[in-house]
Design brief:
There is one protein chain. The chain has 17 helices and 18 strands. It is an alpha/beta fold and 504 residues long. It is globular. 54% of the residues are buried. Bound molecules: zinc ion. Zinc ion binds next to strand 6 and strand 14.
């Protein structure tokens, strides 16, 4: 099967070319791009008239949690530590049926595809622990809808109250006992689960991969994290984790280890080129130096970070240190949508109010780089996807330049970041196959999947409301922890542990 897109404006994002458009053709043969430029004499099974169209690499969502999709639009105005009580409950978590896990993932995948995302890193944190049936269902949904996806087994193997500073001081003893009775994931079982998943799913359908995702350094034992890194190295897959999202986590490093969480990761040998750090907000200059030296990736989750009041990552300083930056929606409860055009828009704007120093603002081209090549590199797919170059997998979107967001057309890169919402997309191509066209997913029937999901939801939410009530008991203590860490952080700043962005 071959596809020829003729006479289009093309933003390749290829090194040296970046976001400057060229006029030309793209030839796709099988799952790969075989030519970019002048292919007029070529024949193809499917010819798309590219006149009046813009073609660019499909967007890469570098950090997403599909399990939160059922909580879209449900919570507001809570800091991370309080919100987690409801989205990832300590008590009474329901084990989701594989079918509901499938429908929930399909919901994310369809929205992603229709809004221009062709590749996603889905860090799947199932409460209480991921089962292999649930993971199979998640992979099946991505296979069916047609995305390129890197899917994790997310794990926490320390008792929950030992992952947050002051929890044992501030949570009442009877609630501590209830929380402790839940236990934590068994690291040997989780590693066996990962080995199975790698065997079963890694490389599936030419576009699906499994990755390891120890939740965060304070939430996992060093042994588990190091074993996870060994697995990642052996299978050339990402080691995906969360670091320094909130001020509570900035205090955590000092309280638990007497050093920053980045210094702790370095000491454990876990800062490597395949390490992806979600957030990286409360990093010091020394942290940024260590991350740059190691060549890690970070994911900037700019909408989620605003919703949870977490802070703003010092992205330009991070980029200047040679750290690869991806953009992510983060979970669909803290972002409320998978739409990467919204994430790009926010990333393009937020640094302008973070600092008056406009050398530290992002350009539209910076944003597009993060949302394409940066994301692909963080998923260990930098040589396979993220730009339109011969030899790479054919992952791209086609946009209608006659639509309102591009009229009048000034600078195409600026239009993509600041004007477009995803509404002008005419085609989404993944792995050489047209997966969505004119707002419709071609491989699944959206209306049927949504109708089936709606049928399942009343029972799910009835149970979830009982879970919320159980976990609400912890909220006063967690609000106190949040306040105490914020006060403690001011103290840390006076001692010179000021996060880089505090000075901008
Ligand atoms: Zn996350």
């Amino acid at each position: 099967m071959s596809i020829l897109i003729q006479g289009a404006q093309i933003i390749t994002m290829a090194p040296g070319q970046g976001a400057r458009p060229i006029t030309g053709d793209i030839l796709i043969e099988g799952d790969r791009i075989t030519a970019v430029g002048d292919c007029e004499t070529q024949a193809a099974d499917n010819v798309i008239d590219g006149r009046g169209k813009l073609v660019m690499p499909g967007l890469v969502n570098g950090h997403m949690h599909s399990p939160e999709a059922l909580y879209k639009g449900r919570y507001d105005n809570m800091p991370l530590e309080v919100w987690m009580l409801y989205a990832y409950p300590i008590l009474g978590a329901q084990t989701l049926s594989p079918r509901l896990a499938y429908l929930r993932t399909a919901l994310c995948a369809m929205e992603s595809l229709k809004s221009g995302t062709t590749c996603v890193t889905d860090d799947v944190y199932e409460s209480p622990n991921q089962t292999s049936d649930q993971l199979d269902a998640v992979f099946q949904a991505y296979e069916d809808v047609g995305l390129r996806a890197t899917v994790s087994g997310h794990v926490v193997d320390r008792p929950f109250l030992d992952t947050i500073p002051f929890a044992r001081d501030l949570v009442p003893p009877e609630l501590c006992a209830e929380a402790d009775a839940q236990g934590a994931a068994d690291s040997a079982e989780w590693l066996a689960h990962c080995r199975d998943a790698l065997e079963k799913h890694h490389g599936r359908a030419g576009r699906l991969n499994f990755m390891v995702a120890p939740s965060a350094p304070q939430r996992c034992t060093p042994d588990l994290m190091q074993a996870a890194m060994e697995l990642a190295e052996a299978h050339d897959t990402p080691f995906h984790t969360h670091i320094l999202e909130t001020k509570v986590q900035a205090v955590t490093g000092q309280e638990f280890y007497g050093e920053t969480l980045i210094a702790y990761m370095k000491r454990l040998g876990l800062l490597r080129p395949r390490t992806t750090i979600a957030h990286s907000i409360w990093v010091t200059d020394a942290d940024i130096g260590m991350m740059g030296e190691a060549g890690v990736s970070i994911v900037h989750n700019v909408i989620s970070n605003q919703k949870l009041g977490a802070g703003v990552a010092p992205i330009k300083r991070i980029m200047r240190a040679g750290i690869n930056v991806a953009l992510g929606s983060d979970g669909i409860s803290t972002s409320d949508t998978t739409r990467m055009f919204s994430v790009m828009h926010a990333a393009g704007l937020i640094h302008n109010v973070q600092t008056p120093d406009n050398d530290l603002w992002l350009s539209a081209e910076d944003v597009l780089h993060c949302a394409t090549l940066g994301g692909a590199r963080s998923a260990c797919l930098g040589s396979e996807s993220g730009s339109l170059e011969p030899g790479k997998k054919a992952d791209m979107i086609v946009l209608d330049l006659d639509a309102i967001p591009f009229t009048p057309l000034n600078d195409p890169a600026n239009h993509l970041v600041y004007c477009e919402t995803g509404s002008s997309i005419t085609h989404a191509i993944v792995n050489g196959e047209i997966m969505a066209e004119a707002g419709t997913c071609l491989r699944v029937t959206e209306a049927e999947l949504l109708a089936e999901l709606r049928e399942e939801l009343p029972a799910f939410f009835a149970a979830h409301e009982r879970t919320e009530a159980l976990n609400r008991q912890f909220e006063p203590s967690f609000r106190k922890i949040h306040k105490r860490c914020n006060a403690r952080d001011m103290g840390l700043r006076r001692l010179g542990h000021e996060p880089a962005w505090g000075r901008t």
